[in-house]
Write a structure and sequence with these properties.
The complex is a heterodimer of chains A (184) and B (192). With 184 residues, chain A is α+β, with helices and mostly antiparallel strands. Chain A contains five helices and four strands. A four-stranded mixed beta sheet of chain A has the order 1-2-3-4, with no helix packed on it. Chain A starts with 5 loop residues before the first helix and ends with a strand. Chain B has nine helices and no strands. The longest helix of chain B has 29 residues, at 163-191. The termini of chain B are far apart. The chains are: A alpha+beta (184), B mainly alpha (192). The A-B interface holds A 6, 9-10, 13-14, 17, 19, 44-45, 47-49, 51-65, 67-68, 70-71, 73-75, 77-78, 81 and B 21, 24-25, 28-29, 32-33, 36-37, 40, 45, 48-49, 52-53, 56-57, 59-61, 96, 98, 101, 103-104, 106, 109, 120, 123-124, 127-128, 131, 142-143, 145-148, 151-152, 167, 170-171, 174-175, 177-178, 181-182.
Chain lengths: 184, 192
Amino acid sequence: MSSRDPHLEVLVNRYLDGEITARELEDLRARVDSDGQAEDLFEQMQQIHLACQDMVQTHVLQPGRPVEDLIAGAWQGQRPNLWAGRVKRVVFSRFVSGMAAGLLIGVFVHLAITSQRTTGSKPVDRSEPRSVAVTRAAAATEDPSSQDTLRQVDYYTWIDSQGNHWAIEGLSEERVEPVAYQDF
Amino acid sequence: MEKDLGQNESALVCAAQSGDRAAMQQLLISNWTWLRCLVYGVVGTASLDDVLQDICVKVIRKVHTLREPQCFRPWLAALAHRQALRYRSRRPIATVSLDDTTVEEPCDRRSESAVDQAARQDLCQQILEVVQDLPEKYKEVFLLQYSRQLTYKEIAEILNVPLTTVQIRLVRARRMILEAVTKKSKRRIHDE
C-alpha cells in the first residue's frame, strides 16, 4: 500500500517544497518508477501542489492594497495612536488616583464606625468567669433577676426546694427565662 | 547566504529601532508575503488589509521593545498572530467564494483552454474551501509554506516549533486536502 506509505509521502512533500536532498531524490525516483501507486500519488500531489500555489497567489497574495500603501497608512496612523496613548495614560492615572481616594475614604469610614461602636457599648471583661453556679434553696421561689449580684452573668444554675436543677440565662438583657430544665 | 540575510535583517531592525523609516519599510516589505499568509490563515479575506495595517502600526510603535534583533521574525509572527486573533474575536470570519473576487490569471495560464481553466478554477475553489476548514496549526504551516518565501527551517523559527513538526504538519495538511478533493470528485461522479 504505497499510496499511504508515510516515508513516500514525506519524500514527495520534500520534493514539492524544494527541500529534498540528492539521495532522497534518487530514492523517490526509484520508487515512482517501480511502483504504480507511488506514481499515482506523486502525480496527484503535484497537481494539488500547483492548484495550491494558484489558490494562494490569487486569493491571499494578489488581492488587496499594495504593501507600500498599507505601510504609508500605518505611518500616518501613528499620530492619532500616539495621542490615544496619551489619553490612555491620563485615564489610567485618573483611575489610580480615584482608587486611592476611595481607599482612603473607606479606611476613614471604617475607623469612624468602629470608634463609635467602642464608645457606645461597655467592653466585656473576658477575665471574668463565664458562668457562676449558685446553689441556694431560698432563691427557688424568687425571681433571680432581682438579685443585683447576678446581673452580669450570662447564665447560672441553682437547685430548688424539690431538688430540681435550673439553668437561667439572659440576665444581661434584664430578662429571666428558664431555658433548660435538666437533671444533672 | 542565509546568515548574511539574517545579519542584514538584524541591521535593518537596529536601524528601525533608532527611527530609520526606510529601514522599517524595507523590513516590512521583505517579510510581507509570509506575514500576509499568516494573517490570512486567522482572519480570512475579510478586512485582511485593515488587520495588516494595524499590525504595521504595532510594529512601528513597538519595534524598540525587541531586545534581540535576530529574533525579529518570530517576534513579528507572534505580534501578528495575536493581533489577528484579537480581530477575529471581535468579528466573525466571512468566507469568500472564488466568484466574488476578480482575479487576474497568471500569464502562463492564459494559453490554457477554457476547459482546463475551468477545471483548474474548480480545483482551486475546492482547495480554498478545504484550507479554510483545516485545523489552525496545519493551516498556518501550509500557508507559510505556500508564501514561497520560507524554508522549513525558517517556518520552524517563526512558529517556534521543531523542524520535524513543520514537515509533519505539511504532510498532513496536504493529505487532508488530497483526501477531501478526491472525496468531492467521487461524490460528484456518483451524483452524475
